Amino acid sequence: MPSKWTRKVAAPIVAAATVALFATGAGTAAAADNVLSVKAARKLAQKLEAKQREERSLKFTSLGRPHRRSSRRIDFPYKDRSTRDVLCKAKIVVVQSGGDRSADIRDVDCEGIPSELLAYEKVTRRMRHRVRGAGDEVRKSARDYDRSLEKCDDLVVPKGRRDEVNLLFKLGATRAFYSPIRGRLDDFNVALHDVDGQDPRMVRGVDAWDRTLVLFDELPNATKNSCKAVRNWAEEDFSSDSAPADFAELRVIRKQLKVQEDVLDETAGHMANGGVFPAIAKAFAPRGLQKLVGLGS
Q1: 14 with 84: CB under 8 angstroms?
Q2: How many CB atoms lie within 10 A of CB 150?
Q3: Is residue 27 located within the same domain as residue 152?
């Protein structure tokens, strides 16, 4: 279904959401200091945000980081999504004047979320649920891999081979993360293509998932047990002829995985900015999935 459909059909709903957002009364509070503090401003902005949830039918609200405009004014980016999938963006402006502080909503812009983006949200939500369900398996895979590396703690690696050994270890960790959820990601990839979207940034993200899974499949067998591969290599005095993998090829794979991760992070940000639930948008990217299952920082 074309993405324009949502915007066209939702026009009256969008107009109503805009009016409702403008109509919400401003919050007020007494001021004790001459300079408006971020803490005081955030408290008043959160109060106004809560009022939106109370008075309007919303799926979620989001209050952004403060931006100080002067000693007496602080702005907060704000957005919310209605139960009818209308995304409203605005800013909450907190101003201190005399002995009072006040907060109101300005620069309101509401649009229906494109049906295409809602379709991507649906398939990503399903994948996120399935990956989270595999959390124990993923964490066990990561723990087992970390333990396997302990057998290489006492291994003396020549200086000229350390970068190659570290590269093999890093890609082994990549395999340990993806292996338990590979089938789920295959299903996700198929579902992404079934959306048949036209949004260039989403299409780029779908292509990045294609490339990521292909790159995973190109990982050599040595990454299944990196430490064992390195110990076997050590028995051959780290000779080039006995190398466990083509390290030039591994460097390309590592670099391209990083490129695709960056693209997927950008796509996740695009989804969040377009009104997709923040937690679901984050799960579109590998880094978000790692956090979902308790890995990564």
Answers
A1: no
A2: 9
A3: no
Sign for the pseudo-dihedral over CA of 184, 190, 196, 200: positive
Of 112, 127, 160, the one marking the end of a domain is 112
Answer whether 244's CB lies under 8 Å from 233's CB. yes
Task: Strands of the chain (E only): list them.
Answer: 27-30, 58-63, 67-70, 73-82, 86-97, 100-112
The pTM for the full model equals: 0.85
How much helix, strand and coil, in percent to the nearest 5, is found in the chain? 65, 15, 20
Angle between helices 247-273 and 200-217 (to 10 degrees): 150
What is d(CA 267, CA 257) in angstroms, rounded to the nearest whole number?
15
User: Do 216 and 183 contact (CB within 8 A), yes or no?
Assistant: no
Summarised one tens digit per residue, pLDDT across range 69-111 is 999 999 999 999 999 999 999 999 999 987 789 999 999 999 9
